[in-house]
Write a structure and sequence with these properties.
Helix 12 links the parallel strand 11 and strand 12. The protein has 16 helices and twelve strands. The protein is globular, with a radius of gyration of 21 Å. The protein folds into two domains: about 250 residues, Rossmann fold; about 160 residues, Glycogen Phosphorylase B (Rossmann fold, 3-Layer(aba) Sandwich), CATH 3.40.50.2000. The chain is α/β, with parallel strands linked by helices. It starts with a strand and ends in a 5-residue tail after the last helix. Helix 4 packs across helix 5 and helix 12 crosses helix 15. The strands form two sheets. Strands 3-2-1-4-5-6-7 form a seven-stranded parallel β-sheet, sandwiched between helices. A five-stranded parallel β-sheet has the order 10-9-8-11-12, with helices on both faces.
Length: about 425
């Protein structure tokens, strides 16, 4: 079967779909992933088909609009507005690229960020499309939308009311800002009628098969979700066979106590020096060894003390089990890797779904309360790292959860479910 996977975003938004695609291909399917050009080497490494898609999320995060995203704090409406504004100049080309990538496909699998073009393309080509998401979108009273910040409410009724309301607000904000863009493209390119209402709010959409790529031990299936919702476990890639750690990293790991990993992915390019100074002050105050990962964040070069080393890249699956705790921004992929490693996580959320994952880590008692970026100080970071590395109960809970997650085979579960739907001819 010819399968096209549509995804967009950072590495954490692409890597899980490489894992799914690689397994599907090993079972005889022909798989192509349509995504940004900078991920082609990753796809080539696993022998997957590739279709280039316009747009580079790094430029968005590094540009003026990207900085507005980082300043939205926890306002989902502002976040939606800035996201659409940042992407709008290239969205029609992006949608066109996705359409070309699907021309000969028999099935479409898609990421949350590509949902509208994916569903519209599937409608145009009369082929089935399956949502494979890294964040939950189905309303429930048990926890809020992944785009919302959980708030402490002692009264169950109010908590359930708030949680349900977050999905309505998210749906409204998303649809309000994206509707003109998708409808113009539907009419001009697909020659399909415009959407009159948000297609993702209707019952038919909510009842289609959904696969969620996270652990049921991290987000259990809500009692008010239907049988069409499948929580498979995380979609982890196999270890990178052609990667080996540099000697300087090995020497550092072997030269003292377990260090702390600190990395903020794509989040801190413009404030690299400020973030670096906060981190170094915190480490000095608690005398901890640390590995600073630059990633897209580009943590500034500076005169680092002997107890701190800076690296450009190391696979999370290799590095995280070798540290005492992981300090990061709370992206879905990095959070999953930290939980799998079985070490406590200190989450410094910036925007989007990051506050939600920080809350879940705290709720599971495998990390301290998240410290939002705007409240980040050397003292707050030092206290969080101390708690994560000194609390024996937290360490044991993290180890236990990591063991459970490593025993799950999310990729196998997801592919098994997909193949069952394929065999039944779902969506045709």
């Amino acid at each position: 079967m010819k399968i096209t996977i549509l995804t967009a975003g950072t590495r954490g938004d692409v890597q899980p779909y490489v894992a799914i695609g690689s397994d599907l291909q090993s079972r005889g399917h022909q798989v192509r992933i349509a995504t940004h050009r900078n991920f082609k080497p990753l796809l080539d490494q696993y022998g997957l088909g590739y279709f280039p898609v316009e747009g580079d999320p790094r430029k968005i995060l590094m540009g003026d609009v990207g900085q507005k995203l980082l300043s939205t704090d926890r306002n989902p409406i502002a976040m939606m507005r800035h996201t659409v504004a940042a992407a709008e100049p290239v969205l029609h080309q992006v949608f066109d690229d996705y359409l070309k990538a699907c021309r000969d496909a028999e099935v479409i699998l898609f990421h949350l960020l590509t949902a509208l073009p994916a569903v519209s393309i599937a409608e145009k080509l009369s082929i089935p499309a399956f949502p494979l998401y890294l964040q939950h979108v189905h309303p429930t009273r048990y926890y809020p939308s992944a785009a919302a910040t959980p708030i402490p409410l002692g009264i169950p009724f109010l908590k359930g009311l708030y949680n349900n309301l977050t999905y309505k607000i998210e749906d409204w904000a998303f649809w309000h800002f994206i509707r003109p863009v998708i409808n113009r493209w539907r009419e001009h390119t697909l020659e399909r009628p415009p959407y009159r209402t948000n297609p993702f709010s209707d019952r038919e959409w909510r009842q289609r098969p959904f696969l969620y790529g996270f652990s049921p031990h991290v987000i259990p299936k809500a009692p008010d979700w239907g049988d069409n919702i499948h929580i498979t476990g995380y979609w982890f890639l196999p270890d990178m066979k052609d990667w080996s750690p540099p000697n300087r990293l090995l020497d550092f790991l072997q030269s003292g106590s377990l260090p702390v990993y600190i990395g903020f992915g794509s989040m801190v390019r413009r404030k690299a020096e400020e973030i670096t100074e906060i981190v170094l002050q915190a480490l000095r105050s608690i005398k901890k060894r640390a590995i600073l990962a630059t990633g897209w964040g580009g943590i500034a070069d500076s005169d680092l003390p002997d107890n701190v080393i800076k690296i450009d890249f190391a696979p999370h699956e290799w590095l995280f089990p070798r540290v005492a705790a992981v300090v990061h921004h709370g992206g879905a992929g990095t959070t999953a890797a930290g939980l799998k490693a079985g070490v406590p996580s200190v989450i410094i959320p910036f925007f989007g779904d990051q506050p939600f994952w920080g809350w879940r880590v705290m709720e599971l008692n495998v990390g301290p309360p998240p410290v939002h970026r705007k409240k980040l100080t050397a003292k707050a970071l030092a206290e969080a790292i101390k708690l994560a590395t000194n609390d024996k109960g937290m360490k044991k809970r993290a180890e236990k959860l990591g063991k459970v997650i490593r025993a799950e085979n999310g990729v196998y579960n997801a592919v098994k479910i997909l193949n069952a739907y394929f065999a039944r001819g779902w969506g045709k």
